Amino acid sequence: MIRLLRVTLLSLLLIGALLSGLIYSLTWRPEAKESLTVSCSAKAAPLVPGQALKVLTWNLQYLAGKRYVFWNDQLQGEDERPTLEDMAFSLDEVARVIRDEQPDLVLLQEVDNGAKASAYQDQFKLLQERLADLYPCSTQAYDWKADFVPSPHIFGSVGRQLATLSRYRIEHAERLQLPVTPGHLISRQFQPKDALLLSYLPLSDGGQLVVVNTHLERARKVEDTQQKQVAAIIKVLDKLESRGTPWVIGGDFNLLPLGQYQRLSEVHRAPYSADSPLHLLWDKYPMIPSNTQASGVDRARWLTHYPNDPSLDGPDRTVDYLFYSPLVKRVESRVRQDDTLRISDHLPVLARFLLPAL
To answer: To which CATH superfamily is domain 31-354 assigned?
Structure first.
């Protein structure tokens, strides 16, 4: 009996070791802070103090488009992946909008690379091929990566990135890990690992502008991950502000502005908190769209999210934003809605700024 028990325990330990090794080989464990590769042409010019700067932020929904109700949508849809034809259409449309707007900086979220759900495409590379003449500089960072996720809806690789395109020189870039959703040791390895992608753009006077790209955790009322993520972002921005370094941050924050929670139906407000953790940011720094814009009489113009939900016939909430340093002056801003409703479940947010002068 004792010998049998020993054999059983040794077998269990061996199985556990093999399972741990398998999980280790299939998943990704990023450092808290990582330097990133920057692709930048020698002809890329530095920014000039006092110049105007146009910024676009857009969650591309991995080019999946609007003709699906995916398994992870709020209504628990059945679709698991888009067709190649729909992704090709979305890619062309994204390139068309960016070419039409010609922003100086493009901040993109949910850009797939090597994911089963998007036919293992390198979507950023495909987009760069269509925009190479406009953006000599770029950098990218994963916020979800695994060679194999055992979820029955995925059952394959994931690879999702933040990506930044710049008309101006990027001196260096880094990835900063944000707090992640708690979970048991195994499941945690396969979850997204939200992050900040920081790009440092030199100014001709020796200073720099820091541009931050991010995508926060999906709203889940029972957890405080988003609040921890916002608090971590504030620490980064406060540090830049204390140094006198101008900055802009944009992305999909997955959080509502003041006043929109009450306007959503009970079903659609369920994941959110009535007291949006985003208030930690808007209490300190200017936000685009502002709470007045996003919840005022013209609020429909500032909606940025159109979930793949058949009960909705248009955008119903704002979750995508630009925040900026008080050292930077906002000139104008808007959400491009008129011709973007069928490209992604998010709409592009645009703003024009003036950098601090000498």
So the answer is: Endonuclease/exonuclease/phosphatase (3.60.10.10)
